[in-house]
Amino acid sequence: MRVAKLSWSPQAGLSSTGDEPQADLVLYFGARPVLAEGGCHQALREAFPGAVVVGCSTGGQSLGLEVEEDGAVGAALRFAGTRVRLATENAIERGASHACGRRLGAALAAPDLAGVLVLSDGLHVNGSALAAGITERLGPGVPVSGGLAGDGAAFAATLVGAGEAAPAERRVAAIGFYGPSVRFGHGSAGGWRRFGPERRITQADGPVLHELDGAPALDLYERYLGDEAQGLPGSALLFPLRIWNPARPGHELVRTVLGVDKAARSMTFAGDMPAGWRAQLMRGGVDGLVSGAAEAARAAAQRCEGAAGDGLALLVSCIGRRLLMGQRTAEEIEAVAAQFPPGQPILGFYSYGELSPLAASGHCELHNQTMTVTLLREAA
Fold this sequence. Notes:
InterPro entries: FIST_C, FIST_domain_N. The protein is an alpha+beta fold. 21% of the residues lie in helices and 40% in strands.
């Protein structure tokens, strides 16, 4: 497997660290205003005419150890013995996310399917239902990872480009990897600290949380955020919710806020908030988040033991982590890189939600406020 690093800007155009005109797959991530213009996607399609080209908008993107706000970065992958296939769904509505996942899973299903990478609209898709639909069709034996596109702290629009289609809203792209050679490592961890009492989700409708312990959900957040409540929903990114099913110990998820309805006193999260589950507020510190990133990378590396070459480490981290870490954001990427051999190609973006299998069950779930690492390699 060979990897060429890419960068693109409206001013400088496309540049590459290597010559890979025969690339099988090109992944790219960039700022929403830059991708909306369409030039980046078109330039990559022209430069790599035989490749599957897929990318999305972000809350910041990284190539190597550097995080940037503008332009776009990417990687061109040439496999030795692995095939890739692209499946897409367009004009998706939130309520149709589960059916969308099932259709994507059906389109990619095959006896030699080794793993799936998903890039999804981050505002109009229910990531929990999407992951459930894909896993329901493929089963837990096929690892599924990826993330939801971002738009910085603006939450205005998110874009996904796939194949011949330029970046647009309400699109989900799924890439299947086939054959006995490919190795698909994955790991996801947070590093946030719990605080405050445990509460019960008493009323919710999918991702819309109405009540905790019988009281309006927004009241709880406004009480804890104080003056920062004026910045909702953005300020809530620093205070995610840990949720879990009391009947399934170890099945914990983290949820982050996408929007608020002040009239209804409700909050919309990136994934489902099942009634009857428990919930607890969380907050973070830089050291804890950096440790979580290292943990995710170690898990991904362990699942790729025995593969040759550097491959590609794909990092999907939540925008809330970036907002909290500020100028120290690069530290979590450095912590990931430290778990791999020197020179490991690293590409990543800041998202509105991360997709990764749970370690205990293998089922893909939507995570928030985590660092998710997907390691693509091929066996010797």
